Amino acid sequence: MAKRVHQLAKELKISTHALKKHLADMGVEVKSHMSPVEDEVVEKIKAKFRQEIDAEKKREKDRKSYHERIVLSSKKKPEKPKPKKKSEKPKPKKDIPVFEEKEIKKSLKKKGKSFPKKEKELPTPPPAPEKLDKREKAAKKHKKDFDDFEEKSKHSKAKIKHGRKGKKRKKKFEPTEIEEAEISKNIKKTLAKPKKKKRYKKIDKQSDQKKDTKLQINEFTSVSELAKLMDVPVTEIIAAFFNMGQMVTINQRLDKDSLEMICDEFDFDVEFKSEYGRDIMETSEEEKKDADYEYRPPVVTIMGHVDHGKTSILDHIRKTNIIAGESGGITQHMGAYQVEFKGQKITFLDTPGHEAFTAMRSRGANVTDLAIIVVAANESVKPQTVEAIDHARAAGVPMIVAINKIDLKDANVDKTIADLLKQNLYLENYGGDVLWTTCSAETGEGIEELLELILLAAEMKELKAPVDIPGKGTVIESEKDSRMGTVATILLSEGDLKKGDNVVCGATFGKVRKMEDERGNEKEKIGPSDVAILYGLNDVPKAGDIINKVESEKMARQISSERKHIREEREKYHSKTNLNNLFQKIKQNEMSELKLIVKADTDGSVEALCDSFEKLSTDEVMVNIIRKAVGGINEADVNLASASDAIIIGFHVRASNFAKKMAEEEKVEIKQYQIIYEAIEDIQKAMQGMLSPEIKEKYLGSAKVKQIFKIKKIGTVAGCSVEKGAIRRDAKARLYRNDIMIHEGELASLKHYSEDVKEVKAGSECGVRLENYNDIKEGDIIEAYTLVEVERKI
User: Fold this and answer.
1) Which of 144, 619, 703, 715 could form a disulfide with 722 if both were Cys (CB 3.0 to 4.6 A apart)?
2) What is the pLDDT of residue 438?
3) Three-state SS for 772?
4) Which long-range contacts (CB under 8 A, 24 or more apart) does 144-147 make?
5) Distance CA 621, CA 226 (A)
6) Is there a contact between 320 and 350 (Cβ–Cβ < 8 Å)?
7) DSSP per position, 350-393
8) pLDDT at position 577 over 70
């Protein structure tokens, strides 16, 4: 696989800009840091860098050898004792002592001779023997001090090395081995140029930066905050984004992909901090190792296309009618159920099959151990079947294929298997290892075989979970109940959860007031892979949020409030502007806008509706969802809709009496739906009405000019014969000469003989005068047409 420019630059430890220059010198053109580089070019540039590194090493080696030669030559100079002996003049051995001088003077005086004056200029007599002994002792002591030089402190070293006394001592005494070493060090320092010192400092700074290239940041960090963390000017970051085709401002918050891209551009390794409070609540790996592990039931997700029999299979397993409460027999919520087969429990997640619930199916695949892909034998593989397979693959979940509806006359199992093979899903006995079975939800055929395959796959995975640690799970679905408050369906993944425990769930918190299973039976405690309907949270959590057990309510309240603040910031700065959509953003001033307030019974339904509505946006009509929430329609929703001229969409919810009365007074439209298809179709029709109509030409007829009449104060009148269709007085006209249009305008008058008429049909003659145009000749063709507005559709 070809390496990209930024990967190769990281490997060679140079900037992407420098690498681009090298590649350009080699004749290789690259567009950006993400461009791939061929293997041959990679080898060439690596060889080039190796040559440069070898040459640099050789230069460094030559430089060191040169310095060593200079040091060796400098060591020989202080060994010569001659300069010091010159300064120390030879001692006058023939000096006359004082007592001898007196005797000589007496003898010369007796003879009548005087003592010569020159003898006064003789050198001073040598010091007494006692003084010489003191000097010798001091010299010996000083030499001993130098022998013990290594044991002295750094401070005394510096004194001897740089102090004036040390220099005087060196002059008086011959250098020792320690002094020679110090001299050689000083020579090296003096030979080293100050420029090189600065260069070495720069290299050290670069090495320090390389050590600190790891950044720990939160998602949705602003550009200014990122610049401070990276110690880079803000203008450089904005310029880098511009070069990558993205427009950002100094206060704009960046999403995860943008942060990774810009950090890679500046050679930083980015690490995103986990959600606030997770390090406090989550159990450490050491505690998990010491915990007791037990086998847990497998979590199985049933996925597939609409009406392929997913819920019917689960219905047969549970022996209850699940879909009785669903509108039109279509599952529009995510359900979690637990069944028992041959003494072992299995947890099922039933996800909707409609394309609007893609995100819900994705969440189902990410919390599951096994995925059952249900395919109808009579319809084979459908688009949502392919999506379900992709979700399971992306989550790395093993799949079991259930080919349903084999009891129907038009069932074709072989065609279904062939279509699955086209999706690279290779079944057992067909060149693959994906488990599969045929079944019928109506007759019950193959259902037990399907359950046995689930237990077999779970046994192969050896599913275990720690039990004696604080509970942790995932929110499958959530809603607001008028009587019980917030209701959340949770799936516990590890630990246990009991009635009365304090919990944090995403940006919400609360105390477990009550837990029930899917049949309404109350539970006191749940364990790993258990499903429960939980009551007691202060607000409706998002589907997919992590629920954690915490020690105290104070901690839960603090963590949830901080998370709520972070999520508000994310939603505030979620919209991005780049060069691709910049023109579209500018056009929004001329764009029609359909504002919606979406309220539904569950968070999954809200998400699905909003995704479907936003997909209906076009260049001319944009869907703007100004509020989406779980719960009934209240006065606050009506007030917001009135202020912003929005429509309220209610799905499986109703408006309160006060809200209805206020909506009538404020003339706010409230639309309530029970089936998602109807809501999408109605919004689509509303948007079609907002589209500007398309103007089309409608051909009416043509006439040939037979004769020209020029009338004073009126102009040129063409005597014509209508050949096709009809010529109408209110129509527009084009004048053709030799099949080339020479004029386009409107009719000034239309006459049949001397009478003004509204229309002249084919086979009749007429007189035609064009508005503000007289250059008409015989043989010209006048073509009449009109403009018609056609309603546009999305």
Assistant:
1) 703
2) 92
3) coil
4) 146/176, 146/178, 146/179, 147/176
5) 36
6) no
7) E---SGGGHHHHHHHHHT-SEEEEEEETTT---HHHHHHHHHHH
8) no
> Under a CB-based contact definition with an 8 Å cutoff, are residues 547 and 475 in contact?
yes
> Tens digits of per-residue pLDDT, 225-260?
888 888 888 888 888 888 887 778 787 767 777 888
Cα 783 to its chain centre, rounded Å, is 60
* C-alpha 574 chain-centroid distance: 12
Helix (H) or strand (E) holding 224: helix 223-230
Q: Name 496's bridge partners.
A: 470
Secondary structure class of 453 (helix, strand, coil)? helix
Tokens 């395919």 found at: 375
Average pLDDT over the chain, rounded to an integer: 76
The amino acid at residue 779 is G
pLDDT band at 442 (very low <50, low <70, confident <90, very high): confident
> What's the rounded Cα separation, in Å, for the pair 58 and 175?
35
| d(C-alpha 478, C-alpha 679), whole Å | 21
User: From CA 708, how far away is CA 768, in angstroms rounded?
Assistant: 10
Helix (H) or strand (E) holding 535: strand 531-537
Tally of residues, the chain? 794
Q: Which of 525, 492, 515 is closest to 296 using CA atoms?
A: 492
Mention every residue, 6+ apart, whose C-beta is less than 8 A from residue 529. 296, 297, 298, 299, 345, 347, 463, 465, 491, 492, 493
Contact 730, 672 (CB under 8 A): no
What's the Cα-to-Cα distance from 458 to each of 207, 350, 427, rounded to whole Å? 51, 18, 18
DSSP symbol at 96: P
Closest by Cα among 472, 457, 460, 393 to 425: 393
Q: Model pTM? A: 0.48
Q: In angstroms, rounded to a whole number, what is the distance separating the alpha carbons of residues 575 and 598? A: 19
What is the distance between the alpha carbons of residues 457 and 400, in angstroms, rounded to a whole number? 9
CA distance 609 to 675: 11
Alpha carbon distance 720, 644 (integer Å)? 59
Q: Left if phi > 0, otherwise alpha if psi is -120 to 50, otherwise beta: which for 518?
A: alpha
Buried b (16+ CB within 10 A) or exposed e, 382-414: bebbbbbbebbeebebbbbbbbbbbbeeebbee
pLDDT bracket for residue 28 (50, 70, 90): confident
Are 528 and 292 within 8 A, CB to CB?
no
Q: How many helices (H) and strands (E) does the chain have?
A: 26, 33
- By the 10 Å C-beta count (0-12 exposed, 13-18 middle, 19+ buried), 309 is classed as buried
Q: Give kind and range of the element (H or E) at residue 188.
A: helix 177-191
Give the span between the Cα atoms of 354 and 659, in whole angstroms: 31
Res. 100 pLDDT band, cuts 50 70 90:
low
* The dihedral formed by the CA atoms of 21, 27, 32 and 38, expressed in degrees to the nearest 10: -120
